[in-house]
Amino acid sequence: MKAKKSYGQHFLTREDIASNIADSLQLSNSYQKVLEIGPGRGFLTKYLLKKNYELIVVEADRDMVNYLRHHYKTLKGQIIEADFLKVQLEDFFENESFAIIGNFPYNISSQILFKMLDYKGQIPELVGMFQKEMAQRVVSAPNTKAYGVISVLVQAYYTGEYLFEVDKNCFAPPPKVQSAVIRLTRKADLELGCNAKLFKQVVKIAFSQRRKMLRNTMKSFLKGNPILSEDFFKQRPENLSVEDYVILTNRIEQHQKNNPPSN
């Protein structure tokens, strides 16, 4: 079974690393279902099957699905043959909670995270292997070069941990980049304290010109408002914590309420 470029496949070859990834899940009594994304030939799957929870896998490559059905017969009825990004997860989990794990295809790793956020009410935990640069972005703190949109949006709801790195020579074929495994654990309180839709817009617009001060990037929201001259708005997007973005979102929403668009 050769790796296919079209699916971004790079097969892990180190048994100890696969075992460590499987052991990184911290399942609680409140959820016992796990979804593995992109199991491929089942190198990680075999370690997950040893655990005491219900495993479901989603795989888009039909050849890999056939391989899994032949070599991991206990999975037969628990293989979703589909592109994860197109799957309606409620069709398989209804309102149940489940964790996500996988050696994720790097070309869709950010989209996996955004989908996780869409289902955050059902996903208390994620353990995944990412391109090292992406892994650093997700868990990075304010005032760092890696801190960006994905950092803020994920950390608004999850606590991130950078677990360990994986050398590119641990794969066949080796990717061109280094890899790292992270764990995301959902926060106890999912209430942001602001309008979540507006929060997302504010974060994305702020980082669309990350070298500019907020007084420039927030003009589209706060046109004509004297607060733009405050010291707060002399900061750049990477200087703000999640809590700062919540405060900023609330101030913008208040401005919009006080200055409704004229007909």
Provide a compact summary of the structure:
The chain is an alpha/beta fold and 263 residues long. The protein has helices spanning 15-23, 45-48, 62-71, 90-93, 109-118, 132-139, 149-155, 196-208, 214-217, 219-222, 242-258, and strands at 11-12, 33-37, 54-59, 79-81, 99-103, 125-131, 158-166, 171-172, 179-186.
CATH class category name of the largest domain = Alpha Beta
Which fold does the CATH topology of the largest domain refer to? Answer: Rossmann fold
Q: How would you describe the shape?
A: elongated
The order of strands across the largest sheet is 4-3-2-5-6-9-7
Percent helix range: 25-40%
Roughly what is the average pLDDT, rounded to an integer?
92
Q: What is the CATH superfamily label of the largest domain?
A: Vaccinia Virus protein VP39
Number of domains: 2
The proportion of residues in beta strands is 15-25%
Describe the biggest sheet?
A: 7 strands, mixed
User: How many strands?
Assistant: 9
Number of helices: 11
**Which CATH architecture of the largest domain?**
3-Layer(aba) Sandwich
Q: Strand-and-helix sequence, N→C?
A: EHEHEHEHEHEHHEEEHHHH
Provide the structure class. Answer: alpha/beta
What would you note in describing this structure?
With 263 residues, the chain is an alpha/beta fold. It folds into 2 domains: 5-186, Rossmann fold; 196-258, Helicase, Ruva Protein, domain 3 (Orthogonal Bundle). The chain has 11 helices and 9 strands. Strand 3 (54-59), helix 3 and strand 4 form a beta-alpha-beta unit. Helix 8 (196-208) packs across helix 11 (242-258). The protein is elongated.
